[in-house]
Amino acid sequence: xxxxxxxxxxxxxxxxxxxxxxxxxxxxxxxxxxxxxxxxxxxxxxxxxxxxxxxxxxxxxxxxxxxxxxxxxxxxxxxxxxxxxxxxxxxxxxxxxxxxxxxxxxxxxxxxxxxxxxxxxxxxxxxxxxxxxxxxxxxxxxxxxxxxxxxxxxxxxxxxxxxxxxxxxxxxxxxxxxxxxxxxxxxxxxxxxxxxxxxxxxxxxxxxxxxxxxxxxxxxxxxxxxxxxxxxxxxxxxxxxxxxxxxxxxxxxxxxxxxxxxxxxxxxxxxxx
Length: 273
Ligand code: C2E
Ligand code: MG
Ligand code: MG
Ligand code: MG
Prior knowledge:
Bifunctional diguanylate cyclase/phosphodiesterase, binds magnesium ion, 20% strand, binds ligand C2E, globular, alpha/beta
């Protein structure tokens, strides 16, 4: 009986594995065509200065409408990273974003865009030239371009990454560490890399009102960040009470559904007009 049960379990597992591999294969092989067809587009979520209550930038978030299905970035970014498509996808995002920045800066010259980049993109030797080329082509202020480093893959060569980031910063572009406190992002990254912003992950903000440990962690991370010259952005703020605590802890900026969900460019333009 035991043997039969485990064999059944194995076959159910196999079927599920098979379905998920098929889906992965479908998505992987569709990325390129879908970019060309216009099935990918960008959304923009405001980042607000807590003291002035003004929008200082927008985070650029990629969206994929695949046939009738909305594929979440958590799924397709992972696939793109694992199958060598992230540079291609990242280039699309970078160009579209800098083009939008140009448009937004015509209305407000101080507004910035925060663009997510994978560590794998930074490891590509053409990245700096691509970035500098787009900044020149669209004649945007480099300091209005912020790159959010999403550390979803292990940094293989911290020395090389550190060199690239220094070169990027020398062009005037700002650097943020995304999802700070989760995954691979750690204090050693802050020691090695020169960054402008630390984004505290939503998981520390969720229970900040009723779980004192989170409040202590956010307080300590904020103090440490300020001491090393970084500004702090809180991610995923949904309630007024969370914002009240963040203000008390001297967090600089916040982002979340409390102010606005990610919106289309036309909507973003309305928000700053
Ligand atoms: P992220 O960079 O940490 O982006 C923030 C995520 O939190 C976004 O999810 C955003 O929609 C969501 N969010 C913001 N405020 C709230 C809130 O108040 N409540 C809740 N529940 N969620 C909130 P999204 O758009 O699904 O993106 C997920 C992740 O996918 C991003 O996390 C980022 O790591 C990655 N991603 C998105 N676009 C790109 C891209 O163009 N390039 C790369 N490399 N990664 C991207
Ligand atoms: Mg981000
Ligand atoms: Mg984040
Ligand atoms: Mg996050």
